[in-house]
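User: quick one
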Amino acid sequence: MSAHAPAAQGLSDCREAWVKALEALAQDDDRIVAVVNDSVGSSKLGGFQKKFPDRLINVGIAEQCMVGVGAGLANGGRIPFVSAAGCFLTGRSLEQVKADIVYANFNVKLVGQSSGVAYGELGPTHHSIEDFAWLRLFNTLTVIAPSDAWETAEAVKWAATHEGPVYLRLSRMAVPELDVPNRVFRVGQAELVRKGGDVTIVACGTTVHLAVAAAEALQAEGIGARVLNMATINPLDEAAILAAADETRAIVTVEEASIRGGLGGAVAELTAANRPVPVERVGFPGFVPTGSVEWLFNEFGLSAAGIAAAAHRALKRAKA
Amino acid sequence: MSLQNDTVARIKEKALWMRRRAFKMVYDAQLGHPGGDFSATDIIATLYFGVMNYDAAKPNLPGRDRFIMSKGHATGALYTVLCAAGYFPEDWLATYMQPRSMLNGHPNRNYLPGVETNTGPLGHGLPVATGIAIAGQITGASYRTFVLTGDGEMQEGSNWEAAMTAGNRKLENLTWIVDRNRLQQGAGTEETNGLDPLDKKFEAFGWDVSMVDGHDAEALLAALSAAPTGKPRAIIANTTKGKGVSFMENKASWHHGVPNDDQFATAMKELI
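Assistant: Done. Structure below.
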């Protein structure tokens, strides 16, 4: 386990929101079951297990079996939430995710816990920074990385009612609630967190609040930064990205993931093919050195200063 | 004739039709896996015409018995049994592996009624079947789940993960049949990565184990219909790859071999 500082005031570990939402849904719908790989504790499912002992299926340390069992439970009319550390859920059982869940189109919810570099010091074996790129290739899999506790709960509720495969990418990092009035969770639509006309910062998951902080810093320098919360990585809200390319001069993408193939990759593909504008991708270049999650974020520019610097680089490349 | 004899006769009649029709599909497409189709044919015919409860007109009935074809390449056997069972009309079989056919080289449940899950990569069927059986266990449903794997396929570790899970959960509603033809794509199973003794392995994982002649409909019927024992059931069905056609039997090369005109004519003469 990664040693984290306790959540500072006003910050919350989104896993609490995940289990609270799941337990409430399970109370009302007995088709909802949880499937885990000895990950009851790390998925915070102890309370679920107490309330619904028969509906918590622990296959032990056997991820391929876990994902296959999820498909089978869906065949048997259940709504399984298959919850495990993101690195193992996606990497170890990628072929089961492909064939048994997405290609077979079963109504299974895959829940990647402690994603990104949450297990900082444990190293790249335990990081899940490749998952966006791997899973985004499955065009019929909905991939969602919620930005805060509220959005986590909304995403869990949406997944339970949506008929089809979903990957929810959750974190254990404590994050603040986004300050957006009258929020409505819309899958597949970017959320406008902050208006701005010079540059657009597209972020997801744990990095959205950092994008907001960067936009505030840029504002102080007279640069207007639009911030989009792109919680749904797949399908991508292409209209919002193309509008950003038209209405602002450059785009910065920010994700707690590899800069190859994930959110940054998706935005770069889309803009290069349709509206070439400078795109700077903030994230991890590949395997990262050991260090705490806080150190890794700062080292690789996942910070207000790092994102603002990326915005400057992008604007420097942009046409006046 | 007794009811039992009627059932066995019907299974044999369907199995003969399946072999002839599957071989025609492979001959027409010049693609397929006929060796494995023929080792599995009698097992599958026994399931659909002697054991399973289903309504082909309502393929999604929650209480249906389920059959999972883990050796997904044996689509000649699977598609012909589903056709014979009434899931779709015979003219669909003529589209086998043609562009945009619903009869893909490996089965897709979203295309074809009666297909329970998508298989093809080996080692996927048993975990999915285990999940279906768990759904039955936790809801108290009375349906049974059957899964057919190849034997070479046992080299995939995912099977052993699921074998452990099913054994520990005492899934007596789950029956696993191993098509033990002792040949995989390139060579014999024992010279590749040996599996014996399979029975002792399954017993150690908490399964009720029996061995049968996988081409003897009567023996298969008895093994598949035996009363539950409180454990998941594994049936090692000893079979012959390419069963029924002299020049194909026990030849690994017929794993995905396809017949020329003379071979097709010879096979049609032998399959009567």
